[in-house]
Amino acid sequence: MAPRFQAPRGTRDLLPEELGRWQWAETQARGVLERYGYGEIRTPLFEDFELFARTSGESSDVVQKEMYRFKDLGDRDLALRPEFTAGVMRAFIERGLGGRKRIHRLWSGGPVFRYGRPQKGRYRQFSQVNCELVGSPAPGADVEMITLFVDLYEAWGFRDLTVVLNSVGQPASRRAYGDQLRAWLAPVHGRLSADSQQRLVVNPLRVLDTKDEGDLALFRELGEVPRMLDAIDEADRAHWEAVLAGLESVGVAYEVDHGLVRGLDYYTRTAFEVHDRSLGAQSALGGGGRYDGLIAELGGPPTPGVGFAIGLDRAMLVLEERGAAAPAPPAGIYLAAMEATHAMALALARELRRNLSVELDVEARGFSAQMKAAGKSGARLLVILGEEEWKRGEVAVKDLASGTQETLARAGLAEALGARLAQAPPPVRGGAKETEKP
Ligand code: AMP
After folding, report:
1. Ligand 1 centre from 151 Cα, in Å?
2. Mutation pick for ligand 1 pocket among 66, 81, 108, 126 (CB with most ligand atoms within 8 Å)
3. 159-208 pLDDT per residue, tens
């Protein structure tokens, strides 16, 4: 029978054994972000609904269909964050960061929420690592962002990633390009999906985002899609070319994707994504772009910016499917006690746990139950508090990897155990049962 309470549709629990890989990935990411000079910013999980509506664009899927919008008891119109940038920019303006220094490098991580149709790699609560470089319009900022983007994946063991890239121009060139798209689609307008017809009215570029098979067939029928890159102005083109040249000098592989428009409306100039085919329909691992008009749009001082979001769930899924080993937890100690030494074992465990990982039997069961538990625990060292040894100020220590035993003094025990755990396990002696790995 199904349990009475289940995780809400589109959400899931991550258990300790699964979280090993997540925590490792988060640590790796923090290292890269620190070395690039990015500071962490934490903003609320929910904000005014209006902030997201303004930022993402009224016509975006996120606002139209995917927002966890709710009224609180004070009748405030709020929403769970569907992405990080809006909240980070709200904080940037509200806290006056722009007045403190010119360029800000900020990152955030944590859950985001979108009411989509759940499937492999698509959840209603998922996690992102998000980065923003605020304050510079220079192509060098885009290059740093895309390089950081790729280096984060590389730190997780991804190789040979190809970034796909496009320029989505400026509001004026986008409007002109939108008109071109409308004209191009005019002959088949009546046969387009309802979604695409609506997008053609509010935000024609997003038509290129369609997943509808019928629409895609119509595009093929019409031949070559007009290109945004042919519609952008000279300044945008110079920016675009400088970004490509920069990526070449740092050795980041890219491909131009004329159909890349990104789901959110706030992008200007550079837009980029990275995909992994093994994910099937939900192949986007992450994406980002420049958003030069966003801060002004939200009522702040005109300030350019560029950023990206990486989806952690999908990255972890790919690593798991490729069989990338989850990092082993640190080798630890199992502390076994006799009836007479159980109280001492509790105190010793507390002392050792200041630096070392220690497990002991909280139920004070018999010795053989403790030996079994030690075998299952995955501990590297078994420390036995025998009554007589303890009186002499000693404990017995067995290396469960090699089977070797020794007696160590109670004084300085933490240091002695720490030193043994830091060493690679000694070679296993052949044959003997006690040398088997637990
Ligand atoms: P976006 O801002 O939509 O480009 O999202 C950035 C990244 O977040 C995507 O490339 C995905 O890896 C991830 N992502 C977006 N939506 C979902 C979702 N519903 N479930 C899991 N990951 C997602």
Report:
1. 19
2. 126
3. 878 899 999 998 888 888 889 999 999 999 999 999 899 888 888 888 88
CB 128 within 8 A of CB 83: yes
CA distances from 142 to 132, 145, 304 (A): 10, 5, 11
Ligand 1 center from residue 37 Cα (angstroms): 25
Q: Hey, what are 399's tokens?
A: 């290396």
Stated length of the chain: 438
Please give the distance, rounded to the nearest whole angstrom, from the Cα atom of residue 83 to the centre of ligand 1.
9
Of 285, 281, 288, 121, which Cα lies nearest the Cα of 212? 281
Choose the residue to mutate in 314, 316, 317 for probing ligand 1, maximizing ligand atoms within 8 Å of C-beta.
314
Q: What distance lies between CA 438 and its chain's CA centroid?
A: 34
- The CB of 78 under 6 Å from ligand 1? The reply is no
Q: Strand, helix or coil at 113? A: strand
Q: In whole angstroms, give the CA distance from residue 56 to residue 53.
A: 6
Q: What is the pLDDT of residues 258-315, one digit of tens each?
A: 988 876 667 899 999 998 877 777 788 999 999 999 999 999 999 999 999 999 999 9
Cβ 263 under 6 angstroms from ligand 1: yes
* Burial of 272: CB neighbours in 10 Å, binned 0-12, 13-18, 19+: buried
Q: Which residues pair with 288 in a beta bridge?
A: 272, 308
